[in-house]
Amino acid sequence: MNTKTLRLNFFTVTIGIIFAALSRLLPHPPNFAPMMAIGIFGGALFVKRIWAPVISLISVWISDLLINNILYSEYFDHFVWFYDGWYWQYVIYALVPFICSWLFGKTIRVSGIAAACIGSGIMFFGISNFGVWVSSDMYPRTADGLLSCYVMALPYLKGTILSNLFYTAILFGAYFLVERKMSLAFINFRYTWKWI
Known about the structure:
The protein is mainly alpha-helical. Helices cover 66% and strands 5% of the residues.
């Protein structure tokens, strides 16, 4: 079996970051964004593992800058580099690629991709809403307050999981088609595909 690796150039990475950042500015259902899918995709494919969380974090940060300082600028009286509680979400965007790297190893399974989409969505839901409960005054810091925080966030869980599935299918699907249809010198895969 040929061991294959994915090599990215600066231009490809930059275009990916810009696309991901701008996609959050388009009208979309709540929590329907490609950021987690980028981490899943990168964690599964990048040989230099550090690229996956770096691309995810830069994409999220740039899009947060645009959202907070353009779309929601009326809510702030200053330029916002980081919003309150940003670290709860950012730690998830950094962890998911590493988890996926370990999860997939050298075999990428469609069932594993689906599990990563659902699992990362649940992890995001659990950690980010715990962060809201701990670091804001939206809910009382009691067991009932924590439960209320999670219950109120349930509609967003659906959007997160659906967007993970949608964008991950696009990323892996496009990449799979490129792999099968073209022989490109800059692509050298390090894995095998399995459907289940």
